[in-house]
Amino acid sequence: MKTLEIDNLLEFDKEHIWHPYTSMKEPLPVYLVESACGAVLKLESGEELIDGMSSWWCVIHGYNNPRLNRALKAQVDKMSHVMFGGITHKPAIELSKKLIKMAPMGLEKVFFADSGSVSVEVAIKMALQYSIASGRVRRNKIATISGGYHGDTWHAMSVCDPVGGMHSLYSGRLPIQYFVPRPSIGFGEEWCSDDFLPMIDLLENHHEELAAVIVEPIVQGAGGMWMYHPQYLKELSLLCKRYDVLLIVDEIATGFGRTGKMFASEWSGVVPDIMCVGKAITGGYMSFAATLATAKVADVISSGEPSVIMHGPTFMANPLACAVANESLLMLDESSPLPRIAEIEAIMLEELDKAKECANVKNVRVLGAIGVLETYSPVDMARCQEEFVKRGVWVRPFGRLIYIMPQYIITDDQLVKLCRALVDVANIDSVFQCSHEVR
Ligand SMILES: *Cc1c(COP(=O)(O)O)cnc(C)c1O
Fold it and tell me: Would 15 be classed as within a structural domain?
């Protein structure tokens, strides 16, 4: 595409289109993508970028994957959508079967939602309806650990990090939930039970007000890219059982192999009462998610008032989304991604380790196909992205976090190039907002 045409499109975009978390007045620059294939994004300007973001965790089998394309096209020729009220279809039934088989044992009731945030809303509704149906109406609050991220809709937002999230902006309007400090002991560090005391304290004192505890298992994603000790989740599961408080795990970012297990809850051997999945479920083809619950949760909700789950989106169980999800999960089943994820982890460990010598980098963390450089100062996003694009990679950092979660199909060479770009850019002082003194 000609430079003039690109400029015109970008000019219109800047004038009229909101991007995530941006100003309409002074938006950050955006890059015009023409197409994407495998682990590569192709810009209209002709540049090719190795993708380090998997389009926010969701593309795992590569862009423009022939099998996913075929599954989607075949479904289009049958039906793109039908309502789910009073109607069902094979793609939804097959997908439910696959999810139940893959998920931690006991999660066997499936609710299909249109996005991750909606699946979190549904999970919270389930928990609240569980309280109501079991005659414990005072149990109407949710507890969580700070540093979390559960989506941008209302109740999902109420359990996001109280400082980094949107609590201050909407203070007085969001439902007030209970927070304890995030686990301080990292994955791979030595467990110390003190880390869990604040949660014990909270449940001891407030369990009669709690419908559920919600957490991202093992890896807190968009709230801070923090990886915590599996024992924490194990203890949490036991504690929730003791006080008969439901445990919701939000596997939207961590599910389908990302942390090196099919679901991150498996690191702790935990079966939650309710689990949300999304993002990678369609291989990153379209927005889709599901909330899985145990038979007990479904039973209690269905036995009390109003006996039905009060949710039913227009595009519930959309057949196109189900069809592409079926193919995506079939691919995971046919050849487990876990060995490849272990290789990706090994390469990232070796390559990102070099960032430890970099004066701007405070901490390096790698788990599964997630690699994180925590820096001392927040990045200057526009500057940082410019440097990455110059190096032929696509990375979108935030705050003090420069991180990658590559697709499982990335080649070793592509991954090495990506990691080296990360270390390179972290060494450039001018990509950070403040100078070193502020440390
Ligand atoms: C992305 C994300 C969500 C929200 O999903 P959307 O599809 O963006 O609504 C919820 N929880 C976690 C852990 C996420 O990473």
Answer: no
According to DSSP, residue 63 is labeled B
CATH number of the domain at 414, please.
Answer: 3.90.1150.10
**Secondary structure of residue 344 in the 3-state scheme:** helix
* Range(s) of the domain holding residue 108: 69-334
**pLDDT confidence tier of residue 169, bands split at 50, 70 and 90:** confident
* pLDDT band at 435; cut points 50, 70, 90: low
In this structure, the answer to whether residues 90 and 36 fall within a common structural domain is: no
**Residue of 125, 141, 261, 279 marked catalytic:** 279
Closest ligand 1 atom, residue 250 Cα: 13
Which residue minimizes the CA distance to atom 12 of ligand 1? 150
Question: Cβ distance 198 to 180 under 8 Å?
Answer: yes
Q: What's residue 439's pLDDT?
A: 42
Mean pLDDT over each residue of the chain, to the nearest integer: 96
3-class SS shares of the chain: helix, strand, coil, % to 5: 40, 20, 40
Dump pLDDT digits (tens) for 206-225. Answer: 999 999 999 999 999 999 99
Contacts of 4 (CB under 8 A, 6+ apart): none
Q: What does the block give as tokens for 37?
A: 């294939």
Report how far apart, in Å, the C-alpha atoms of 6 and of each of 2, 27, 31, 286 are.
6, 17, 10, 26
Do residues 218 and 254 lie in contact, with contact meaning Cβ atoms separated by under 8 Å?
Answer: yes
> What's the number of CA atoms in the CB half-sphere (13 Å) around residue 256?
31
Protein residue with its CA nearest to atom 15 in ligand 1: 253
Q: How many domains does the chain have?
A: 2
- Residue 335 confidence (pLDDT): 94
